[in-house]
Amino acid sequence: MPLTIETCVARHTGDRKEQQDRVALFAHPRMSGTMLAVLADGMGGHSGGAMAAEQVLLKAKQNFEAYAPRSETPEHLLASVVNEAHLVIKLTRFTSEQDPHSTAVVFMLQPGRADWAHCGDSRLYHFRGSQLVSRTQDHSLVGEMLRSGKIDEEAALKHPQRNVLLSCLGSEREPRIGHGNQAPLMAGDSFLLCSDGLWGYFSDAELGAAVAGMPPREAAQKLISQARERAGGYGDNITVAIVRLVEAPARNGNGNGNGAVRR
């Protein structure tokens, strides 16, 4: 079945003084139907977090443009983005008085498959229709407590230490990298990348309903608006990217519509 892609990225500063999140979509310069989405939630005070998040995007773009599937697996590419961005962020600590750190979610879409990697507590959700297929597991203290059964999902959202990360880019320890993939793909598959400034205010079902029920731009607007309302004046930076696969419209002539991107 020929597929086309609908995408959107969006950010909101929330109630913070500075936007330290970063997000971007990149089309591969040579391979049709291949794209990369990357999201980073920077930490470090002043402009340090923004600088760290920016390094994630720069490294993602560089490595993705050099990606050659005959000599490199998707998992290797995505891991290289996280590891090399981590090294660059660490090096900036020696040339500034800042202490920059960042999370990272890197998602690559190719014809017939999707691959992703993450570090920290920014998330990737995979929905088929409105149903959750999978989501990344947070590298956080509360995430570990949740996986061990010490707390439930409701308690996790309200836990006073929910912002304590066990792994991120720029720390002394090497980053913990979680990987995932999906193949084959079908119409109705959606991938949501977001920072904790968004997912912290929604259940999985709410996110799935929004992503499946409206075009990506409208879904992003609705989710950000609701997150702002639920934050009650104490909201973090909000960042989101949505990639949704839909049936390609019929057209005359040769070609099947694979690889088309609609923004």
From TrEMBL:
It holds the Pfam family PP2C_2. This is Serine/threonine-protein phosphatase. CDD domains: PP2Cc. Transmembrane segments: none annotated. Residues 6-245 form the PPM-type phosphatase domain. It comes from the Bacteria. InterPro entries: PPM-type-like_dom_sf, PPM-type_phosphatase-like_dom.
